[in-house]
Amino acid sequence: MKVSRRNLLVATGTGALAGIAASGTQAAANNSAAPNVSAGSFRPVRTLNGWTLPHRMRGGVKEFHLVAEEFEHEFAPGCKAKVWGYNGSTPGPTIEAVEGDRVRLLLTNRLGEPTTMHWHGMILPSGMDGIAGLTQPPIMPGETYAYEFTLKQHGTHMYHPHADELTQMAMGMMGMFIIHPRDGEQVAVDRDYCFMLHNWALHPGTYRPDPAIMLDFDLWTFNSKVFPAIDPIVARTGDRVRIRMGNLSMWNHPVHLHGVEYFVTGSDGGRWPRTQWRRETTEIVAVGQTRDIEFIAPPGDWAFHCHMAHHVMNAMGHSIPNLVAVDQSALNEKIRAMLPGYMSMGENGMWEHSEHSAMGHLKGPPNTLPMMGGAGPFGTMDMGGMFTVVKVRDGLAPNDYSDPGWYSHPRGTVAQRVSSDADFGEPIRRPGAAVPAPAEPPMPDHSMMDHSKMNHSK
Fold first, then answer.
1. CA-CA distance, 112 to 73, in Å (whole number)?
2. Hey, what domains does the chain have and what are their CATH numbers?
C-alpha cells in the first residue's frame, strides 16, 4: 500500500481526531484576571501582556489546541505589524500543566507554508519532537496534527516550530510551556510571572518583520511588547516573586533587576535544589535557554531590563554617523530643503531626542516608535525596548495585579538637586588632570516647529 499523508497521520496518532469536533474557538483567558486554568495544587503563572490557554479534558487527557496563523499585532501604541503566531497572539498563549499529566496538543496550520511544533527541552518520544522531515512529515496548510505524551518533568519550557525556523520564529511563532511539579513546591511563591525575550526587524515605515536580518534588529521585546507598553510586575511588600524568562531571540540577554539580590533558582531543568541556587543582580539568559529568578519584594518602583544598552531602545538605527561633538547647525537649512521639519540632534548625546519626541516636536516615519521615551513621575524616562518596572506596594490583596501607579517615596528618600553651578564643590580629580569647561547645550531651534498642534500644558 502506498504511504499517504493521511496514513502517516493515522499512524502517528492523529487518527484520534476523528471523534473530536471543531467546537468553536478556544476561550481567550485574558491575564487581566486570574489565568483560566484548573489550578489544582499549583499557583498559575501570569504572563506579561499575555494569556494562558485553557484546556479540555477528553478521556483523562488534557487537550490544548494551538492554531498557527497570521494576524496584526501592536508592539506599542503607534507601531503595528502583520506577524505570525498562535491563536491570535505572539508569543502564543502560555500552556500550563502538571508533571505526570497526559497531554494532547493539537496544532492547526492556517499559514501559507508547512510548519511543525517542537516542545523545547521536554522529555518525550522521538516521534513527538516536531522536527520536519526527521521525526514527522511537515504539517501542510489546512492540516491539523496531534502531539500526545506524558509530562515526565517540571520546569519552565518553550514551544516553537522546527520548520523554516528562520522565517517562522522571526515572524513571532513561539510560546511558553510551564510544567508544575507534581509534589508541589518546597518553597512556595506568592506571585509567578513569565515572559518571552525576542527581537524583531521591523524597519522604519514598514508593517511586516524582515526575517532575513541576523543581527541588526529594530525592536527588542518582553513578550512581543516594547516599553512603555510592557505590563508592570506587581507585588505586595514581602511577597516571594518568581519571574520565568525564555529566550528565543538571536541575542543573549543580561537581565538586571534593581533594588534586590535575587536567587537564580531554575530553568527548563526544573526548579533546582536549594544548594544550587545562587545570588545575582544580573543573569544572562542565553539563546534557547530559560531562567527562573526569585526574590522577596521590597517596596518601591524598581527598573527591570536587559542590560545591553541598545536593547532598551526602540526603532534602532544602524550604521549612523557619529554626531557627538559635531556642530550641525549649518546643515539644518540644507537638509530641510529635502526633509521639511528636520532638527539636528546628537551633538551632546541623544537625551534631547526623547524630550522632543515627548513634546510632539518630531514626527518620525509612519508606524515607527521614538527610540526612547516613556513618561515617569519625574519626567521622561528615556527608555524603550526590554524595560519594565517591578511595582511593590504595602497592603495589596493577594490576587491584585492592577497597576498601582507610581510609588510615593517616604520623605527624605529621593535624590535632590543641591546646586545648579557646574563648578560646585571641591571634587577630587585624577592628579594632573585639566579641569574642562562645562558643556554648553545649544539653544533649541524652534523655527520649523508647528506649536499650534503641540500640548505645552504637560
1. 18
2. 5-187 (2.60.40.420), 195-311 (2.60.40.420)
